[in-house]
Specification:
- The protein is α/β, with parallel strands linked by helices and about 400 residues long.
- It folds into 2 domains: about 190 residues, Glycogen Phosphorylase B (Rossmann fold, 3-Layer(aba) Sandwich); about 170 residues, Rossmann fold (3-Layer(aba) Sandwich).
- The protein has 14 helices and 15 strands.
- It has a 7-stranded parallel sheet with strand order 5-3-1-6-7-8-9, with helices on both faces. The protein has a 6-stranded parallel sheet with strand order 12-11-10-13-14-15, with helices on both faces.
- Helix 1 crosses helix 14, helix 2 packs parallel to helix 5 and helix 11 crosses helix 13.
- It starts with 5 loop residues before the first strand and ends in a 12-residue tail after the last helix.
Length: about 400
C-alpha cells in the first residue's frame, strides 16, 4: 500500500507485558508504524514504538462495564474526524476494522440458553452494556470489516451473529529467534535448573485457564529432572501451588508478567499448552519461533490447533485434561530426537508462513478496501491523506 495513512488504534492496554490482544497490537503496529502515522488510544501504555499516544483516563473504582462504556464514548469522540482508518481491538461503534480476540459475549452468554436464562442475562445492566457494545462492533457499515484471529473464532462469531456477517481471518505472527547460548545459560542458572534438567514452559497471565493444574498432575508422574517454569503468573498462583501441590514447589518456578518472555523460551526445552479454550494461542507460536517443540490442545479447544498436525509440526493433545497423555507426550518430545527434529523442521516452516509482516500486509489490504468503500459512497473527507511514501 503506497498511501501513508493516519491510523488510530483502539486498545485497552498497549504493551507486550499485558499479553494476548495487547501483545498482538504491539507486534502488529511495530510493523505498521514504520510506514504509517499511528496514534494509539488506550488506558495504559508500556512500549517503545514511534507512535503518538492518547490516554483515556478512567476512575478505577467504576465497575468494568462502566469503564468500557466510557472508553467507547471517548474513542468515538477522539476518532470522529482525524483519521483515515480506525483499527479497533475494543467493542463499540468507533472503528472501521474490528479485531476480535475472544469468543463473542453473545455466544458465551446467550447461545444455547433457554428463554428464561436469556431474560436473566438481560436483567443485568453490565450484560446489556457489553452486548450493545459488541453488537455495535459487529454491525455491518460501509467500509467496516470484522477480523477474527483464528478460524475457530470465526466459527464462534458466526454462531452468535449468523453466517451473513462477513468475517476475515488474520492470524497473529511470529519471527524466528536464534538460540543464544549465553542467555540460555543465564536464565537456567537463575531458575536453578541443572544441565540435565528438562525445562518445560507455560506462558499465561491466567495459567489455570491454560491447563496448569493438569500440567502439574503430569509433572508429578515424570522423573525429578522434569522442571516447569510458568511465566506471567499472579501472586495467588504461588498459594495455589503450595496448598495443592506442595511436593512440586521445588520443581516449579513462577515468574511475574514481563514484557520480554524471549529469555524464558531460550532457557526451556519444551513448551506445553493444554488449554481448554483459546481463540488462538500466541504463546505456542512464539515457542515455535524460538525453536521449541510444542505440545498443544486440539482444534476443538485451541484456535492455533487448526494450523498444526499431530507429530508433524506439534504434539496435539486429544484430551488436554488427561495428565497421563501430557506426561507421555513430554517424555516423547524430550527423548525421541528424530521426532523432535521432525517437529522443529516443520514448525519453522509454519512460523515463516505466519509472520507479522504478512499480517500487516493483510491489514493494509483491508484498510484500502475500507477507504475505497467510504470514498465511493461520499465525497472525499479532508481527513483522508494523499501523501505517499
Amino acid at each position: 500500500m503506497s498511501e501513508r495513512l493516519r491510523i488510530a488504534l483502539l486498545i485497552d492496554r498497549f504493551g507486550r507485558r499485558f499479553g494476548g490482544a495487547e501483545a498482538y497490537g504491539v507486534n502488529l503496529f511495530e510493523v505498521l508504524s514504520q510506514r504509517h502515522d499511528v496514534t494509539v488510544i488506550a488506558h495504559d501504555f508500556e512500549h517503545d514504538l514511534p507512535v503518538k499516544q492518547i490516554k483515556v483516563k478512567v476512575n478505577r473504582k467504576w465497575p468494568s462495564w462502566l469503564r468500557v462504556l466510557h472508553f467507547a464514548r471517548e474513542a468515538k469522540r477522539l476518532t470522529r474526524d482525524n483519521f483515515d482508518v480506525v483499527h479497533s481491538h475494543m467493542n463499540g461503534g468507533a472503528g472501521h476494522i474490528h479485531v476480535i480476540h475472544v469468543a463473542p459475549i453473545r455466544y458465551r452468554r446467550l447461545s444455547g440458553m433457554s428463554a428464561w436464562r436469556r431474560c436473566l442475562v438481560y436483567l443485568q445492566p453490565s450484560n446489556i452494556a457489553y452486548l450493545l457494545l459488541e453488537a455495535a462492533a459487529m454491525r455491518v457499515k460501509t467500509g467496516s470489516h470484522v477480523v477474527a484471529v483464528s478460524p475457530w473464532l470465526k466459527e464462534r462469531i458466526h454462531d452468535a451473529y449468523g453466517e451473513q456477517l462477513t468475517v476475515d481471518t488474520i492470524a497473529p505472527g511470529a519471527t524466528r529467534v536464534a538460540l543464544d547460548l549465553v542467555v540460555r545459560s543465564q536464565i537456567r542458572a537463575a531458575l536453578d535448573w541443572a544441565q540435565d534438567d528438562i525445562g518445560c514452559l507455560l506462558v499465561a497471565r491466567n495459567p489455570l485457564r491454560k491447563g496448569l493444574a493438569t500440567v502439574l498432575e503430569a509433572l508429578s508422574q515424570l522423573p525429578e529432572n522434569f522442571r516447569l517454569a510458568v511465566v506471567g503468573t499472579q501472586p495467588e498462583i504461588k498459594d495455589y501451588l503450595r496448598v495443592n501441590y506442595p511436593k512440586l514447589v521445588a520443581r516449579v518456578n513462577l515468574i511475574v508478567p514481563t514484557p520480554d518472555v524471549s529469555p524464558y523460551y531460550q532457557a526451556a526445552d519444551v513448551y506445553v499448552h493444554p488449554t481448554l479454550i483459546d481463540s488462538f494461542g500466541m504463546a505456542p507460536l512464539e515457542a515455535m519461533a524460538h525453536g521449541l517443540p510444542v505440545m498443544i490442545s486440539g482444534p476443538e479447544y485451541c484456535g492455533f490447533g487448526q494450523y498444526v498436525t499431530h507429530r508433524h509440526d506439534a504434539w496435539v493433545l486429544t484430551n488436554p485434561e488427561d495428565p497421563r497423555e501430557i506426561a507421555q507426550g513430554l517424555l516423547a518430545l524430550t527423548s525421541d530426537q528424530a521426532l523432535r527434529a521432525h517437529l522443529l523442521h516443520h514448525a519453522a516452516k509454519l512460523v515463516d508462513s505466519l509472520s507479522w509482516a504478512a499480517a500487516a500486509q493483510k491489514y493494509e489490504a483491508l484498510y484500502a478496501e475500507s477507504i475505497e468503500a467510504r470514498r465511493s459512497t461520499a465525497a472525499p473527507s479532508p481527513a483522508v491523506s494523499r501523501r505517499t511514501t
